Amino acid sequence: MGLANLLTSSQLIQVSVDGIGTVDLNWIGFVISWIFNLVSDFPGAIAVGVIIFTLMLKTIVLPLDIYSRVKMKKQSLLMESMRPEMEKLQKQYANDKNMYSQKVLELQRANGYNPLGACLPSIVSLVIFMVVFSAFSQYSQYANLTAYNEMTKAYSNAVYEYVQAEDEQGDEYFLVAAVEDGLNNPQKYTPKRDENGKFTDGEGKEIDIYGYYVDYDKFAAYYNVYCSQTEGATPLPADWATQTEEQKNLFVSDFVRLGARRAAADYYISRRPQTSLLWIGNLWYPDSMLNKEVPTFANFRSTIQRAAGAIDANYEESYNEVTYNLTKQKNTYNGYFVLIVLAIGFMFLQQFITMRSQKAANELSSVDGQAAATNKMMMVIMPIIFGIFSFFYSAAFSIYMIVNTVYSLISTLIINKIVSVRFEKDSDKKERAKLQSRAGRKRLK
After folding, report:
1. Is 350 within 8 Å of 412 (Cβ atoms)?
2. What are the pLDDT digits (tens) for 296-324?
3. Any domain includes 109
4. What angle do CA 214, 217, 223 make, to 5 degrees?
5. Contact 233, 136 (CB under 8 A)
6. 125: exposed, middle or buried (C-beta count within 10 Å: 0-12, 13-18, 19+)?
7. Where in the sequence is the domain holding 210, given as residue range(s)?
8. How many domains does the chain have?
């Protein structure tokens, strides 16, 4: 039932708005939702929840990361130990790439080097990243849609305050519900009001209200009291008694919408401490000056329709009504690209450190240095890809990528240091063993 000014009958008004479907969450979405509910009372709850989720996930897959990075570092150190022989091969087969590759492979096998040793855990990590990316994208749409639907409920509940239910006869109940009888002939209906403020048929089934009839005498009595208690309120028109029903209905509907719009905006503002973070108004939209904290209907629809399906353009009138009092938020940038820059910067740093740790492999894997050039290109491409993700998807996902990258960065530095120390100790032991063996042979002679 869409928003309308007046129906054909001048006595029947409609001040309702539409909710929009729902988004079904997968199991990861439920995990994300569970975490957010745990921290929902904290300022910046969404950011806190994302950080907790990321740390939990990274800790769960930490054994895979450790295995992968230990393997990579060991292989790099092995490659470095083979550098003198491989540099000789590069000079010897400078004009024969195939022969160089063959000789390098033989040398690597002889020294226990396996370039594929760290690939499987890396592939698993990539799959996990893509699954989480999909889940975050879905959940951001779910969160935005749920917030909007809750705003429509707040709007409707504000209207229901004036609607008469059974055993409610006071002047404040100046609206009488109308229900459709199936023949396009709305009928007056006095429903029951349950403990949640919803209207039912008395058997627990929620009724669909078609519109409202106005009790003009009750409205006049209620509104006069309202004006006496509310500074700046517009007085009831002096010619109220002689106005047409259409004029009266327009005044009543404007008054009812005033409170309903305020209720919807109040709900949004009450949630804002949890969904915002410093300069970002809504973490479920990108940290970008190209996005507003509260988007236009076109941007809202494009954001949620990937999960909720096609959204009819007729919803625009309801959307504009629900967000009517959020003009400031509609004109406020949702961010300033800060998280996008951080996501790119941290990924570039991680790629740089990874390249440094794999320096020997990059320089010696190909006779002409093509491998090193390819890896330098990847050092640029990967941050750009992360930047694109941050630019088009939610700021919450950007936080996930940043925390994920920083966690990997720190773990890589620690693992590389430990492996390097262990490798040096093992090398020293082997060298001492060789020296002792040589000394023993000399004494025997």
Report:
1. yes
2. 998 898 888 766 667 777 789 999 999 99
3. no
4. 85
5. no
6. middle
7. 12-22+154-271
8. 1
